[in-house]
Amino acid sequence: MHRYMLRRLLLMLPTLLGVAVLVFLLMRVVPGDIVEMRFAEGQFFNAELVAKERARLGLDRPLWRQFLDWLWGMVRLDFGLSMWSGNPIAHEIALRLQLSLQLALMATVVAVLLAIPLGTLAALRQDTWVDYVARVFAIAGLAMPSFWLGIVMFIILLAVFHWIPPMVFTPLWENPWQNLAQMIWPALAVGYRFSAVAMRMTRSAMLEVLREDYIRTARAKGLWQRLIVKRHALKNALLPVLTVIGLEFAFLLGGLVVTEQVFNLNGLGLLFVQSVARRDYTLVQALVLLVAFVYILVNFCVDLLYGWLDPRLRYQ
Amino acid sequence: MQLGHNRWCQGWLLALALGVVVLMAPGLFVLAQEQPRSGGELIMAVPSEPPSYDGHREETFGLIHPIAPFYSLLLRVDPNDYTKVVGDVAERWTVADDQLSYTFTLRKGVTFHDGSPVTAKDVKASYDKIIFPPAGVVSDRQGQYTVVEAVEAPDDDTVRFRLKWPSASFLLSLASPWNFIYKADMLAKDMHWYEQNIMGSGPFVFVEHVRGSHLVGKRNPNYWDKGKPYLDGYRALFITDTAARVATLKGERAHIEFRGLAPKQRDEIVKALGAKATVQESPWDCILMVTMNHEKKPFGDPRVRRALTLALDRYEGSRVLSQIAIVKEVAGVQVPGTPYATPPEALAGLAGYGTNIEASRQEARRLLKEAGVEGLSFTFKNRGIPMPYEPLGIWLIDQWRKIGVNVNQEVIEAAAYYKVLRAGEHDVAMDFQCGYIVDPDLDLYKFLSVDRNPSNYSRYSDRVLDELYDKQSRAINPEERKQYIRQFEKRLLDEEAHYIMTLQWQRIIPHSAKVKGWKITPSHYLNQQLDTVWLAE
Amino acid sequence: MMQTRPPIAAVEQASRARPLPRWLRGGLRFARRWPLGAVGAAIIVVMILVAIAAPLVAPYHPLETDFAAQFSPPTLAHWLGTDAFGRDLLSRLIYGSRTALLVGFVSAFVGATLGALIGVASAYFGGRIDLLMQRLVDLFLAFPIIILALAVVSILGTGVSNVIMAITVPMIPNCARVVRASALAVRQMPYVDAARAAGYGHGRIIFRHMLPNVMAPYLIMLTAYVGQAILLEASLSFLGLGVAEPTAAWGLMLRGAAVEFAETAPWLAIFPGLAISLGVFAFNLFGDALRDALDPKLRVL
Fold first, then answer.
1. Measured torsion, CA atoms of residues C231, C236, C239, C242, in degrees rounded to the nearest 10
2. Are strands B41-46 and B233-238 parallel, antiparallel or unpaired?
3. Can you give the pLDDT at residue B4?
């Protein structure tokens, strides 16, 4: 077991390194840089201005030097300064992390509350109208762009209730009502889509487990056994469901770019898009590494879980 | 009897007094209403955030709107009349007879927020940073002050600017909203201190800034203009999404947005708020221009360029586009309504500004045929910003189709856009210009030859134009200056058609009717110190 | 004795002179067993027909502006209303189906095929090659999709072909991972080793023996990807990184004016969103049924 853990841990490192190299190179291949972004609009733009600022940001050093300096900083957990604002990156990320984390958690709660009961029900009543309704409901959730759902929500709120959610984020402990009044809508929009994915996984996993021989025999024996068996079934089916939930949660942290824009949320997704648009290399690199790390970590935990539950996998 | 006569007199007097009061009452009522009221917090929505806090090195209005209230300038544009310049820290000034020396006397009693007095030393240090930046310090608008020989502070209350040649726009250039007065001691310690810190002498004091969310300022109790500012404080909410910003105004969660909204958004807000909303509109000192790369065939041929500008029905375009986009007036090189704007007779004489569009388009087709490029087709590079680039791009392509020119549009993302333009890889592209003060020196600088101005994306060298620019810059007599500017305009837009002006932007500010004391100007960088603003009940 | 005959057999009996063609029989059986899938397939067929016949079906040209009729609500002249330039929304939706299907099919096909190839090769060669490919796959899976798409679009510019490229890239690793799992099972089959022993080259074994056996997961991923590609194109266009104006594309129609005028002209936002939802819905329904029919155990994450 320990060797399995160690192996999977070691495999994380080259992936992270690969992500670091990829994002570094990618940002530098993309045309335009932050200095041009900042000063190009002005009437008195000239090459001297550009050279000065580039030197100040360290962009005139050779590429390998920039990469190594940055990597060394990351290893020491020194995220550096944002090229756009000059603020420490750790500070910039921390400001948005709170919101993104809360949104991801709320969406997950919505998803779990919807998905698990619906998916189980659909599996137990397979091919009945209950199953069809549940599946249509789930696929509709997958099909609708969640940002479109947000826009429609706004339209309905304004047209019917003449009310819009608060536009400025207040932390949960400061003013829970205002916080929830703002966050419930994106959480619902995102959570619906999330629940669709989880529901389908719950249903198919449950179906698989229910087909197992021991379940069928127990079914033949009668109602009481069926209840016990259902609980067993659910437990075994839970593993792939947890996998899906974990991976989706990791995606939610930095992936909600369009939703954040529509609901005007000051989250990591918006920071992502803004810093790429501004060519703020250091901030983009730090963000990508952070998001990739979370994803890899979740994968690692899932692998551990699987390895613990299914010893056959350990010897691959 | 004496008593009866007195009572009659008294009665008359009483009636007279009542009559006077009744007549004056409305006047008194109005006066009472318009009397600025102290107190309240102004909430503004700002579309973008300041990168750093240093006004000398930034170019975005995202800095001006939240940060300008913390600082004083030497001179500023009059909040009530944008054609005039008044003193902020400067009380009065004199100009030498030879126009080569400007001497300013500073006000007494102006202090920084940390209590220390503002002296000539501070003004000199700030302007030295702007005009003669030391190594490693970037001053964006250094190029605007090439006329300055030196800045002197002979004593604590006097600042003198010595110039190399007479400049008609010098006073106006000193009123630039970016020229914050910093404290000399801070600059001496660290030239970059003001990038991450705020400490000025303006009407408001910095309280807090949560990145991506909001910024708060509160009233400066020691402001030199006693009684001002009227507001207790202000709060800037950073909301990048336009729809969210409009919703904030409609839902009365913010009072005002100082940049400008689209016509349909104004209509939405007025419909939602009714009498609770006021709308102020003005031509905007921003314009989109079509730049044609003279180094690429066939755009080096003036006939082709003239044809492209003749194809545009500007008046119809103004009529339709002003309903969906932030553009409106048909203009030349200066904002309509300003001292050097193009008079109607001069405007009609420019190619593409005629009222007979059929004749213009026929002429355009004839020119294309003569130049041998019938059936011309090219790629039009446009910037990836929805308003007003998209609608104008669509309109241009539509208009060019009417003279048989087939254009397809390539949209380039903002950061890559300037790189492409500067590399000269484009055939035809959308260029733009926003002035922070309405000044010919500033607005015409763009059109100088490419070796003088690297931002000239049409990449031409036109010495006649350069000469006209220099002449107008040094013409102290306004009438003489107007003449040079008209000649410049005619050569730029008509004879050579180096650039094609589209429509002048229109600044539309719908705001809460409670906001008083703020008058719109053609520039969204001006009049943002908020000292004259007050909130009605 | 009451005998209930399955309808197909009854039809066959009735027309014994002319038996139904095989594909129709198979199709009807599919429709009976998985009605939801049949609904999905029907919608897809309608979409394809509409896209092909767009010039015949659409009442107006999608680029035709009519400033007099700006922002008009659904009327007899314009069934779904007009946008900020007076362009007919229905026509733009119809032509938009072309863009959606083009982007969807090409991205899905290229992404799934390349992914399947990589997955199979990875499973076949095993050992270090497998390890290396797995790491690369992990890398791209961990990399945020939006950044990849942003980078591709920034380098190459906007436009349909560049959007296809931007969407294809994140699809490849996902498919590779899923197909590899199936391919590993095939790898263990004795006939693969026998083929090696018989001297067949790697390429031949991969293409003729392994790939055909992973057809099931490949097809399932393919149909799932079409829906995802349409959604991704919508998101990218919404951000301004997808197809450029004035091309008619569903995601692009949601951008800008649709959101800003959501209250006064809600039809601008509602109809394109419905179109996207319907398209992705249909592909998902069909893809689900396909999976149930071919390989119910497959987990398409």
1. -130
2. parallel
3. 45
Query: Which residues have a Cβ under 8 Å from the Cβ of A147 and sit 6 or more positions away?
Result: A189, A258, A259, A261, A262, C235, C238, C254
Distances (CA, A) of A297 to A15, A249, B332: 11, 12, 60
Q: d(Cα B205, Cα A137) in Å, to the nearest integer?
A: 54
C68: closest chain B residue by CA: B320
Q: Does A272 touch chain B (CB under 8 A)?
A: no
In this structure, the strands spanning B233-238 and B214-219 are antiparallel
DSSP A209-263: HHHSHHHHHHHHH-HHHHHHHHHHHHHHHHHHHHHHHHHHHHHHHHH-HHHHHHH
- Name the residue among A41, A270, A278 with its Cβ closest to that of B59: A41
What is the pLDDT, as a whole number, of residue B192? 92
Residue A39 contacts by C-beta under 8 Å, 6 or more apart in sequence?
A: A45, A49, A50, A53, B59, B138, B140
Judge whether B385 and B293 are in contact, CB under 8 Å. Answer: no
Locate B347 and state its tokens: 């405007």
Compute the nearest-CA separation of A169 from chain B (Å).
7
Distance, in angstroms, between A87 CA and closest chain B CA? Answer: 8
Amino acid at B131: I
Buried b (16+ CB within 10 A) or exposed e, C237-248: bbbbbbbbbbbb
Which residue does chain C place closest to A293, by CA atoms? Answer: C142
Whole-structure pTM value: 0.83
How distant is the Cα of C262 from the closest Cα of chain B, in angstroms? 8
How far is the C-alpha of B377 from the C-alpha of B294, rounded, in Å? 16
Compute the C-alpha angle B521/B435/B431, nearest 5°.
130
Residues of B in contact with C67 (CB under 8 A): 320
Q: Rounded to an integer, what distance in angstroms lies between the CA atom of residue C31 and that of residue C41? A: 9
The SS3 call for residue B377 is strand
Asked whether A215 and A209 are in contact (CB, 8 A), the reply is yes
Residue A12 or residue B530, greater confidence = B530
Of C59, C261, C298, C89, give the one whose Cα is nearest residue C183. Answer: C298
Each residue's pLDDT tens digit, C220-278:
888 888 988 888 888 888 877 777 777 788 888 887 666 667 777 788 888 888 999 99
Q: How far apart are CA A261 and CA C267, in angstroms?
A: 21
Cα separation of C273 and B385, whole Å?
22
Q: Specify the pairing of strand B101-106 against strand B81-87.
A: unpaired
Task: Please report residues of C whose CB lies closer than 8 A to that of A292.
Answer: 142-144
DSSP, collapsed to helix, strand or coil, labels residue C158 as: coil
Query: Mutate which of A43, A54, A262, A271 to disrupt the B interface (most B C-beta within 10 Å)?
Result: A43
Question: Which chain C residues have a beta carbon less than 8 Å from that of B273?
Answer: none
Instruction: Return the number of other C-beta atoms located less than 10 Å from residue C63's C-beta.
Output: 18
Contact B219, B203 (CB under 8 A): yes
Tell me which residue in A15, A140, A152 faces C142 most closely, judged by beta carbons: A15
Identity of the residue numbered B168: A
Q: Do B320 and C67 touch (CB under 8 A)?
A: yes
Predicted-complex ipTM score: 0.80
Strand order in the sheet with B204-210: B204-210, B214-219, B233-238, B41-46, B256-257
Query: Looking at beta carbons, which pairs linking A33-36 to residues 24 or more positions away fall under 8 Å?
Result: A33/A59, A33/A279, A33/A281, A33/B415, A34/A83, A34/A84, A34/A278, A34/A279, A34/A280, A34/A281, A34/B415, A35/A59, A36/A279, A36/B415, A36/B418, A36/B419, A36/B422
State what percent of residues in chain C have pLDDT above 90. 8
Test the C interface: residue of A163, A257, A300 with most C CBs within 10 Å: A257
Instruction: Tell me which of B264, B322, B419 to substitute to probe the interface with C (most C C-beta atoms closer than 10 Å).
Output: B264
Mean pLDDT over the full length of chain C? 80
Give the per-residue pLDDT at A222: 66
